[in-house]
Amino acid sequence: MNVRLFMLSLIAFGLGFAAAGSRAQNRPRPQRAPIPDDAPPLPENTTECNYQTPVDFLVRENFLPRWTQPPEEQRRRRGLQAQAVEWRTQHYGYFEGFGNRRDNENTPMENSSRVEFMDLSVRLNNQIHPALACVEQQIRAECGDDDYTPVRLSGLRTRNTYHNGQVSNHVYGIAIDIDPQLNTCCMCVAQWGDHPLCQNPVESIYERMAMPPCWVHVFERFGFYWLGRDRLQDTMHFEFLGDPAHILKSAGPAPHMAAQAGEGSAVETGETGEAETEATETDATETGEAADSEAVEPAATEGDSEAATETAEPATEETQTPATAEEESATEEAATEETTEAPEEESAPESSGCSVAFPGL
What is the mean pLDDT of residues 39-60? Predict the structure, then answer.
């Protein structure tokens, strides 16, 4: 009798899986949205932080091997990938399974704490708190005309949401997601492309998010990389890829900025700036080329298979009362299954508008 019930359960599961697959095949595939190269000239820098672009080898698109690339290019990129893991370990903490524990005795959780951003609390690596404060200062100064107030943030996580040897910057506490239920990730795992904003062709990626473009421009001045420029088009997600030892002006400009200046980069780190950031120009060009050549591919292509095949889960409600690292870790583990993950940090309950949250990568 038990064997028969087991066999009937397997048949029912198979039929349900086939039906779900059929529905997925009938859904239109999201098309990559054009990414405008519209960063304004750098204004006078009145903050305590340096302007800086991401360190090149930390940008995902620069080190991620693709199966279409020649073997020598794949080997070169794997070397950059290892270099990126070593850098993040040394600066932010050792995450089990990536890098060498000898490079940092502490974990990213031990190197993190809660910080306020736009009146919301989120746990991030201690080293990037000053950069986030400078971003908020400039957003409040420059983006006041945009009627946008975030209601939810997601920061450090204790489990990795990338597969195939990749590691998310969330585990290092250097990535922040802003309003996942409003700012889409249309080219991530397939079900995320079901978001209404992903279903129609658009003239700009900005049409697929609620966050104002002004916020993107401000974040990018202070060493953050917007994953909306990545082929995943994760519009909610910013990750600090600058030099944490040179966030503040008092520490002097970052070495990689001096190297870029020597190569003719137009980026400035001082009090004034007349040109757009080199990273904005380069990343927009590279991502634009990828979008042109692969716009008709499904959301989870072979080249993007490093992104986790996690399912979107409803947000868990939190108060603004700071929690201990142990409490947060226990909460996250309880909400996580083998291949799915809820965000480690969320600053407020999901707002109305979408019934399901779409946590970023």
Answer: 97
Distance CA 215, CA 223 (A): 13
DSSP states of 209-251? -SS-HHHHHHHHHBTEEEGGGSTT-BTTEEEE-S-GGGSBGGG
Cα–Cα dist 187/57, whole Å? 23
Q: Are 131 and 138 in contact (CB under 8 A)?
A: no
- Are 127 and 96 in contact, with CB atoms under 8 Å apart? no
Q: Which residues contact 234 (CB under 8 A, 6 or more apart)?
A: 185, 187, 188, 227, 228, 360, 361
Residue 176 counted as domain residue:
yes
Amino acid occupying residue 197: L
**Tell me: the pLDDT tens digits for 212-232?**
999 999 999 999 999 999 999
Tokens of 317: 């409600």
Q: Crossing angle, helix 129-142 and helix 213-221, to 10 degrees?
A: 140
Whether the model clears a pTM of 0.70, i.e. scores above it, the answer is: yes
- Whether residue 214 is contained in a domain is answered as yes
Phi, psi for 79 (deg, rounded to 5): -65, -40
For the chain, the domain total comes to 1
Nearest residue to 290 via CA among 22, 27, 282, 28? 282
User: What is the spatial distance between Cα 230 and Cα 307, in angstroms, rounded to a whole number?
Assistant: 12
Q: How far is Cα 251 from Cα 16, in angstroms, rounded to an integer?
A: 58
**Mean pLDDT, residues 87-116 taken together:** 97
Two tokens at 29?
């595939």
Q: How many CA atoms lie within 13 A of 5 on its CB side?
A: 2
Structure tokens at 155: 């920061």
Residue type, 272: T
Question: Per DSSP, what are the bridge partners of residue 115?
Answer: 122
pLDDT tens string 293-346: 333 233 333 334 334 333 333 333 333 334 444 444 433 333 333 333 334 444
Beta-carbon-side half-sphere exposure of residue 20 (alpha carbons within 13 Å): 8
Q: Is residue 28 part of a domain?
A: no
Q: Say how far apart CA 249 and CA 33 lie, in whole Å.
A: 36
Q: What's the domain range around 319? A: 54-334
Neighbours of 89 (CB within 10 A): 21
- Domain membership flag for residue 157: yes
